[in-house]
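Let us begin with a simple case.
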Amino acid sequence: MQEQVTLLYTRNRSHPVSFLIRWAMPRSRFALGLSSHVIVLARGRYFEATMGAGVREVEEAVALKGQIIVRRREHSVPDLDAGIAWARLQLCTYTAQPASWVPAWACGVYCAAQLLMHNNYDWGGALGLGLAPGRNWADEEDWFCYEFAGGFMRACGRQLFDELSHVGETALLAINP
C-alpha cells in the first residue's frame, strides 16, 4: 500500500537570505523561485536541512516558525518506513562545546558559529548551485534542503534524479505525485 509524503515549499518574507535564494534559483528570467526552502512532512514529523542546524527532525512549530507555505505537494511512496529511517540516519549529530578560553558571555555565539561551520548542511551545493558540473547531489555527507527532499523521496523507493547533478525546486516540483 502506498503512503503519502508531503513536501512543503516555504519562504520567509522578512529574511534577506530567503530572497537571495529565490533570486539565485529563478523559475524563469522574469520570475523569482517560488520557494527558498522545502520541508519533508512524514507521519506528522518534519524533516529539513537548514543552514543553522544541518539536517534535523523537529516539531511543526519549529519547522514552520517564520515560514510561509507557498506550495504543498502530496506524493505517494512505496516505502515510507525506509524513508524515515534514512532521514534519521542523516540527522546532524554535532554538538558544539565552548572552548575553555571563551568567556561565559560569548559561549552562545561561539557555539552557534561552531554549529554553523560543523553541521551537515551542504554549503557548496546551496551556494554553488550550478557551478559544480558533475557533482553528486546524493552524496550523503552534506545536504541542503532540496537535495535532502530528493534523497528522502529516493529512500522511500521513488527512482528519481539519476541524470541530475543538482536537485532544486524545479526538479522537485516536476515529480509526478
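The second case is a distinct protein. As before, the sequence precedes its C-alpha cells.
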Amino acid sequence: MPSGDNALDFATISDIFLAHGSLQSPAFFDGYLCARLALEDISAEDWLGLICAALGVEEPATREDGETLLAWRTLAKERLDAQEMSFEPLLPDELFSLAERAQSLALWCQGFHEVAGEVDPDQRKAWSTPLQEGVADIEQLMQIDADIEDNSENENDLFALTEHARMTALMLYVEQHPGRPDVEKPAQSFEEGMKEEGLSGDGETRH
C-alpha cells in the first residue's frame, strides 16, 4: 500500500491498470468515483468490484494492488470531506504532455458526468446556481480539444479548466453533505475494507 497521499497518484494507478493488461485511463474512474461519493456513496466492495470488472479480472492480482485500489476510494472521500478543501482529481502531473493531461481531464469529466448526468431534473433544480452551471460546464469539458501544443498559455488554460472541474466536484459533495464534520480516518487495508463490507479474504460474503 502507498506510504502516503503523494504515493497514490495517477501514475501509480495507471501502473496497476497496465499490470492487469488494461490501457484504460484511471481518470474516467476517478471522475465517476467522485460523483458517486457525492451523490450516493459507493462501498469498498462495490468500488473494488467495479474496477475489477473494468480490468477484466475477478480480483486484483496482488494484495498490494487491492489495498491501493481501496486506498484510492478512501483518500478521495477523505479529501472531499476535508475542511481545507484538499481534494484534487486524479490526473496526470507535469511529467505528462499537455495533450495527455487534456485528454485525461476530458475522460475525468466523462466519468463524472456518467453519474451526475443521471440525476433527476427536479433534484437538480434544488442545487445552487453555481453548481448547476458547473455541472453543465463539466459536460462541455468532455469535448475538450486534446490536440494542443505544450506552451505556457495552454498550460494556464488547462489549469483553469481543471480547477473549475475540481471546484464543481467539491460543490456537489458539500451541497449533498451540509455541515459534514471533518473526520480523519486512516486508510483501510485491503483486508479491513473487505471485512467492513462483510467479505472474507477469499471474496465470499459472511452472514
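Residues 152-176 form the longest helix (25 residues). The chain is about 60% helix and 0% strand.
Keep these points in mind for the review questions at the end of the chapter.
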